[in-house]
Design goal:
- The protein starts with a helix and ends with a helix.
- The protein is mostly helical and 156 residues long.
- The chain is built from eight helices and no strands.
- It has one domain.
Length: 156
Amino acid sequence: MGEEQWFQVSNSSSQVAVLKAANEYTAKFGLVLSDEETSLLLNERRDVLKKEQRVEFGEGILPKLIIAFCDSPYIHQDNYVETLGRLQEIFYFYKNESLDEYTDDELVDAMKELFDGPCQGSLDYLEDTGLQRLAKRARYGLCMDEDEEEEEEDEF
């Protein structure tokens, strides 16, 4: 086994263990990942990191997303895996779009607030509209007040 393959296998097995541990917490919300679903999400993580040209060490963002979103009224067992996959994809996309100006926790918190609030559980709205302002603020160095003033001017 080559060095790169060993790293991927080692990294993958520790990630599986972290996600399995998260199941203990999320089970009280009726959300549990099977072994197959865990593997699927980890493969999607690898693919989206490659697509977004990002490198990540450690457990990745998925455990934080799981813990942050497991109590959402819009996530149920039947849409859990699909939602986590999309949230993971949206997270990495907006890390790039915001030029890494926000910490992982800040971005996850903003995603959760928008998802449960104005987006009302719509991943499309979160991705296409909800996080655009956040990324714009990061790219153009606007503080919240300047961004809101600009929007008010646009309305007239």
